[in-house]
User: Fold ATP synthase CF0 subunit II from Antithamnionella ternifolia.
Amino acid sequence: MQESSTEVQGGLFDFNATLPLMALQFLALTIILNLIYYKPLGDVLDERDEYIRNSLTAASAALSQANDLTQKYEQDLAESRKKAQDIIKNAQQDAQNIVSSKIKEAQKDADQLMSNTYDQLNIQKEQALQSLEKQVEILSNQIQVKLLSD
Assistant:
């Protein structure tokens, strides 16, 4: 068995027609996979990413709007409370003024009534004194007439 030292087949690097065919097969498979699988998958991932970004933007806008509305409502509530407190304070002041004026009016009426009653009692007293003086005078005249007649 003799070996030929000129040509060894099946070595590690065999450059024949299969190498370019394998390279073409690899490129064709890469292009087909890219068109069929990777491109639609990338489009789906891009759409999902855009949807998430839009959702986050919308959520941020809604949150910002909710915060603005909350702040506005809190300011309105504070103003309403202040107005209500002012109204209550004014109502209490008005009620206090009305009560004070009614008390003064009642005191004035009571003073007027006492003055009128005092005046009427003085008039009745004077009338009673005059009546008593007349009766005393009549009785003294009667006593005098009886004493003189006896």
